[in-house]
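Hi C.,

You asked whether I'd gotten around to modeling the 214-residue construct. I have! Everything is below, sequence then structure, no commentary in between.
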Amino acid sequence: MAFIITVANAKGGVGKSTVAYSLACYYAKRGASVGILDEDIQQTITDNINAWEDQGVDVPVKLIDKDNLPSYQSLADNEEFDMIFVDTPPVLTTQLETIYDISDMVLIPIKPSTSDYNSLMRSIDTLKSAMNRNTDMLTAIVINMAVKSSKVQDSFREAFKTEDRIKVLDAELANRVIHTKYILDSYSLFDTADKAAKEEMAALGDEIYYLLTL
């Protein structure tokens, strides 16, 4: 059965789709069979994959056809993929709770800002309720668009240091233009020459995989 990683945040503009897609590409590059269920309203991942496939590119990350998906539970029984990413809308819905119930990990990209911290704390009870229902689910917070001079990252780590199943990941993603512009030239961040961006995303992917396989 596949590992199911749901990428979620009730606040928009945190790079949710960007992180989900680049991680999917990283695992595919490492030889995993990877699928994405694009439940985001903007359908950014769907548009990107379709655009490159229309140009004849064989994108190794495969879109899961949600119109032919009997239920979210069927994702948990899927034998086609090693890993499945679910990109979610930037709102709290009952649909999201159902997705949490079949997830191995909820990955929360978050920008190092006070408003993002406050938004996360307003949704933390929903996450803890999901973890109570799905006792195998982990919650991982990744600091995205990080700025070295910001001290907000330290506040995130301090807030969750006593939590057993909510972890602020060691890997961080810096605020880099490459994450928004590479898609014009390639389907994958890992086909670019930006060594630092690729190393950061790879470190994130490795840390997530380690947690999933503990």
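If it helps when you're writing up: The mean pLDDT is 92.

Thanks,
B.
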